[in-house]
From TrEMBL:
The keyword DNA-binding applies. Keywords: DNA-binding, Transcription, Transcription regulation. Residues 4-58 form the HTH lacI-type domain. It comes from Paractinoplanes aksuensis. Pfam families: LacI, Peripla_BP_3. This is LacI family transcriptional regulator.
Length: 338
């Protein structure tokens, strides 16, 4: 049996093959009436577009790639769940790459000509590359960067105001009467921008309240995970003057910190209040539920996809922009009690 062609659809719909192509490829310059005729003909004939031929003709793959450091981190998993439907709505499939924060792998993905036949653009959350590293990349690659980076004018950056969000978290601890507030998650090295911004917010909240910062209460971690949170909390509790509250740089860190506190026989929040960051699903269902900073993940995802589509479709260079999504403080049991 002969395979249905685009010309067959055009004859049934009473239009030109070019018009059918415009409908199949989603071009806007087709009237609603014509589009409906073509879509009815496609459905009646069971026409399946030749994606490979279309991609060869347009020079596009119909795919974008989303690059994240870790797929086992709930924040990135939840962000991907928002990015994928937004990309599908725009007519794109999504490839996913996990870098494990390996700078060589991350650099290879944004190098000149890398894998360009596989994808048309990239949404990238780098961990192993510094801001300076990002500037040495293929300028022709449509790129939107997530996380704590600043656009160099050739790519878009989408995120939240980490300093303000972190300050809000610490201000909440101050407001409920805590006086010795620790921070878990600082990363004072070139690729630790996210942690450094959260440390700035920690200090800013103290300054706004007219309080000095005890630098010895700022504890670094290699990653924002449960193990690091648990170990850092143990270090703080072994002090002669432990804290009565802790700002954790992720909800996973907060979960690990709470685990150590409960193991030591302490009560959360009565003895030590804990607040996290990211508003992951697990934080809403544990005991105690975790107070947190909630970034608007859906807005981050939609904005990133919209900007990437603009870059892919534009024949002229698109200036890079800084785009901020909203965040909000969500107090729960780990700071307010039941």
């Amino acid at each position: 049996m002969r395979e249905t062609t685009l010309r067959d659809v055009a004859e049934l719909a009473g239009v030109s093959p070019r018009t059918v192509s415009n409908v199949v490829n989603g071009y806007a310059r087709v009237t609603d009436a014509t589009r409906e005729k073509v879509e009815r003909a496609i459905a009646e004939l069971g026409y399946q577009p030749n994606v490979l031929a279309r991609n060869l003709a347009t020079g596009r793959s119909g795919q974008i790639v989303v690059v994240v450091p870790y797929l086992d981190t709930p924040y990135f998993a939840e962000l991907l769940q928002a990015i994928i439907p937004a990309a599908r709505q725009a007519g794109y499939n999504v490839l996913v790459d996990q870098t494990d924060g390996d700078p060589a792998h991350e650099a290879s993905l944004v190098s000149r000509g890398a894998r360009r036949l596989l994808f048309d653009g990239m949404i990238f959350s780098p961990l192993g590359l510094s801001q300076q590293d990002l500037s040495v990349r293929d300028p022709a690659l449509p790129l939107v960067v997530l996380g704590e980076r600043t656009s160099d004018g050739t790519f878009d950056h989408v995120g939240i105001d980490d300093v303000a969000a972190s300050s809000d978290a610490v201000a909440h601890l101050i407001k409920i009467g805590r006086t010795r507030i620790a921070a878990i998650g600082d990363q004072p090295y070139p690729t630790g921008e996210a942690a450094q911004l959260r440390t700035r917010g920690f200090r800013a909240a103290h300054a706004a309240a007219g309080r000095p910062v005890d630098e010895t209460l700022i504890v670094g971690t290699a990653r924002f995970n449960r193990l690091d949170g648990a170990q850092a909390m143990a270090t703080l509790l072994d002090r002669a003057d432990p804290p009565d509250a802790v700002f954790c740089y992720s909800d996973l860190v907060a979960s690990g910190a709470i685990h150590t506190l409960l193991q030591r026989g302490l009560r959360v929040p009565e003895d030590v209040a804990v607040i996290g960051y990211d508003d992951i699903e697990d934080g809403r269902y544990g005991r105690p539920t975790i107070s947190t900073i909630s970034p608007d993940k859906k807005a981050i995802a939609q904005t990133a996809v919209d900007r990437l589509m603009l870059r892919i479709s534009s024949s002229e260079p698109v200036p890079g922009v800084e785009l901020r999504a909203a965040h909000r403080l969500i107090p729960r049991e780990s700071t307010l009690g039941r």
